[in-house]
Specification:
The complex is a heterodimer of chains A (316) and B (432). Chain A is mainly α. Chain A has 14 helices and no strands. Chain A has 2 domains: 39 residues; 232 residues, MetI-like fold, CATH 1.10.3720. In chain A, helix 2 runs antiparallel to helix 14, helix 3 packs across helix 14 and helix 13 packs antiparallel against helix 14. Classes of the chains: A mainly alpha (316), B alpha/beta (432).
Chain lengths: 316, 432
């Protein structure tokens, strides 16, 4: 819609503009009618919980008054409590570090795999299918698997000792290694997702561009930097945003592998909100923590839309 | 080269997957069998229901004990009750522990609740405060058996003078030791903290660590920490002093000595049991519910059981569950069922099969517990096993206690500072 508005704006002929505007109004009404069902659905199942959660975060609802009794309005006190206590800030920082590290690693490895499997060699198709398995596995299973592998006497420590790669590391119970373990686990999960989206992106790039680049004397690196990457841009954008959202709201993996520990060293925003609401029964604080997370994700979503629009405008 | 690299990656992925595939299968297997027995027995009762056309009152019971065996034992209780009271049918529903509290809280908001809940004793007060449970004070006062209960479990069912639940069964913690490892090292079971420290050190060698406990940052960690805290002379709401710091410091010293693995902060009590069963730890702190598990996992293992070593006094903490009576349409039937479960004959059979210690003195005096070398320790413990709380904000208090424990075990901050920090948090929770 916005793209149309802009092209309209650029039309020099005034007469033309009026006709188009009339047409557009008619189309607009039809358009609104068509989106109405989706709109109602969104209001009920997305809008209502968001608003209600916001309301909850402004009250003081805890074990004593969740089902009966007065639920006093406390304004932004819950948010103030959370920021004063400090674990929310820790969890925001943790989530950011985790998300950034996962996205970078997943993207690089996923791109490498996508490029590898875009070459036709024996078993390429089948291997690509196999790699998808880590994406298809339930996160709970993956979490248990990694918890097992990275435990004190697990296979990772065993391998490290056998191969003389270093001394014994208490992976899951030392703050930094625990975070590294989670990043490795999530990267493993996310690689196939990145690979598939990038493979799809690669197939949309016409082969003859590369041919003409070769004739012009471009080497492999030049072709990659000047052709592949720019032409993959739309795929990369959506990949990064989807990846960010998926990674940011990580839950089961952390809950099972480390439970946010040791001592909040891997506490994420989602696990912290869960802990507040369902382990400590501080429902309003939990809602407040979830809202902070919502705001961050919302901003990322807006940023994505803005980037996509700018991209479409510049290419139209 | 590329093909080889891809092959290597594949090999890594596949080996990774084999492990998880099998565990996945196991999980499915157990739930499948559980649901199968459920449906088959349900079908059986359905057909009997058709013959006597009288209308049946249907109740639901939620519990979190894993495995088919335990499901069957709960099912035996509900079936036994229906046999005596043909008009009431109680359906047991398994809900995983990880989901249990969430389901209850959400169910409370959505008014979608069972009639009876098997609830961890320290959580009883919190849910009573939330309004989940019915006030059954009058009904229980009219029950002659009420004086038979141990004071610890009984007090965990009361909040502000009102009764909300009936104890289902109890347990507490003791020290398990591997007899062979102790005799090989020429040491005897420790009874004091000092002895424990030297014994654990002597037992730590050849890939074996001296002691294992479960110290995760949750209720399980608090449960296992409290005996040490109480033994030092502190209490859950008085941890900031020298006694509290000593308890935290002592466990941290065991980690520093290498006599206890740092991994304990990620171990559940089931993990600790497996470590002990496989001979990776020489001693562990655990409860009587592990006895059947040990018999299955390590039938040849010779082990002894002793009281948790003491600082000032022997201490234990009360574990076990209550039958919470949900505030709803079927309070009368639910209370009646709870009283049936706790009637001496039913309780005796159930508690034996479940690895529970009975919460009733008259049943606990049965030779099965009183004359058994191993179980006697837990029986002695029952006399001074202290309940956790009871306090509606126990989960928050517990969180402060276990967080301080993990911090100290990891060596971040001194035991004194962490104990003081926990005290400050607890004071705030208690509104001091």
């Amino acid at each position: 819609m916005c793209v149309h508005a802009i092209t309209l704006h650029r039309t020099p002929n005034a007469m033309n503009r009026v006709v188009k505007a009339l047409l557009r109004r008619h189309q607009t009404i039809t358009g609104y009618v068509l989106v109405l069902p989706a709109l109602i659905y969104m209001l009920f199942f997305v809008g209502y919980p968001i608003i209600d959660n916001f309301r909850l975060s402004l009250l003081d609802v805890n074990v004593m008054n969740v089902s009966h009794g007065e639920q006093p309005y406390v304004g932004l006190q819950n948010y103030r409590d959370l920021f004063e206590e400090g674990i929310l800030v820790t969890s925001i920082v943790n989530t950011m570090i985790y998300t950034a590290a996962c996205i970078v690693l997943q993207f690089i490895i996923g791109l490498a795999f996508a490029l590898l499997f875009s070459k036709s060699f024996r078993f390429a198709q089948r291997l690509r299918g196999f790699i998808m398995i880590s994406w298809l596995l339930p996160a709970t299973i993956t979490a248990m698997m990694y918890k097992f592998m990275f435990s004190g006497d697990g296979v990772v420590n065993e391998l490290m000792t056998q191969l003389h790669l270093g001394s014994h590391v208490d992976w899951l119970v030392t703050p930094v290694p625990a975070m590294i373990t989670l990043i490795i686990a999530n990267t493993w999960i996310g690689i196939p997702f990145n690979m598939i989206l990038l493979t799809t992106g690669l197939t949309t790039i016409p082969k003859d561009i590369y041919e003409s680049a070769s004739i012009d004397g471009a080497n492999a690196l030049q072709k990659f930097v000047r052709l592949t990457l720019p032409l993959l841009k739309p795929a990369i954008y959506s990949l990064l945003v989807l990846g960010f959202i998926y990674t940011f709201k990580v839950f089961e993996l952390v809950l099972i592998a480390t439970h946010g520990g040791p001592v909040n060293a891997t506490q994420m925003m989602s696990t912290y909100a869960y802990k507040l609401s369902f382990e400590l029964f501080k429902f309003s604080h939990g809602a407040a923590a979830a809202n902070v997370m919502f705001v961050i994700l919302f901003m990322v979503g807006v940023l994505y839309l803005w980037m996509v629009r700018r991209e479409e405008v510049s290419s139209s | 080269m590329r093909k080889m690299a891809a092959g290597l990656i594949m090999a890594a992925l596949v080996t990774g997957l084999v492990g998880c595939g099998s565990s996945d299968k196991n999980d499915n297997g157990s739930t499948e069998t559980a649901s199968k027995t459920d449906s088959s027995t349900a079908a059986a009762t359905d057909s009997t229901a058709k013959t006597d056309t009288a209308e049946k009152t249907k109740l639901t019971l939620w519990f979190y004990f894993e495995g088919k065996e335990r499901f069957d034992k709960i099912k035996a209780l509900t079936d036994g009750y229906t046999a005596q009271n043909p008009n009431v049918e109680i359906e047991p529903v398994f809900i995983p522990f990880a989901d249990f509290k969430k389901k209850l809280s959400v169910g409370l908001a959505a008014s979608d609740l069972p009639d009876i809940v098997v609830i961890d004793n320290p959580d009883t007060a919190a849910y009573a405060a939330m309004g989940l449970f019915a006030d059954i004070t009058d009904k229980v006062n009219a029950w002659p058996d009420k004086d038979q209960f141990f004071p610890g479990p009984w007090s965990s069912t009361i909040l502000d003078g009102k009764q909300y639940a009936i104890p289902l069964g109890s347990n507490n913690l003791a020290l398990f030791y591997n007899e062979k490892m102790l005799s090989d090292a020429g040491v005897t079971p420790p009874t004091t903290w000092d002895e424990l420290r030297t014994t654990a050190k002597a037992l730590t060698k050849d890939g074996v660590t001296g002691l294992g406990i479960a110290a995760p940052g949750n209720e399980e960690g608090t449960f296992q920490f409290l005996p040490w805290l109480l033994s030092a002379g502190a209490a859950f709401d008085q941890v900031g002093g020298a006694e509290g710091a000593k308890a935290y410091g002592f466990l941290a010293d065991l980690v520093k000595d290498g006599s206890m693995s740092k991994d304990v902060i990620n171990w559940t009590q089931a993990d600790v049991m497996k470590q002990f069963a496989s001979g990776k730890i020489a001693m562990m702190i655990n409860g009587p519910w592990q006895l059947p598990e040990l018999a299955t996992n390590a039938p040849d293992l010779k082990y002894g059981i002793a009281l948790v070593p003491k600082d000032k006094q022997f201490s234990s903490v009360l574990g076990g569950e209550n039958l919470g009576i949900v505030n709803g349409k079927h309070v009368d039937e639910a209370v009646d069922f709870a009283m049936y479960v706790e009637s001496p004959e039913v309780l005796k059979n159930f508690a034996q099969g479940f690895g529970y210690f009975p919460a009733r003195k008259d049943v606990a005096a049965d030779p099965y517990w009183a004359d058994n070398e191993q179980l006697k320790v837990f029986a002695d413990n029952m006399n001074y096993a202290q309940p956790r709380g009871p306090h509606p904000k126990w989960p928050e208090i517990s969180n402060a206690l276990s967080e301080a424990l993990d911090k100290t075990l990891l060596g971040s901050g001194s035991a004194e500072d962490n104990a003081k920090e926990a005290q400050a948090k607890i004071d705030k929770i208690l509104g001091k």
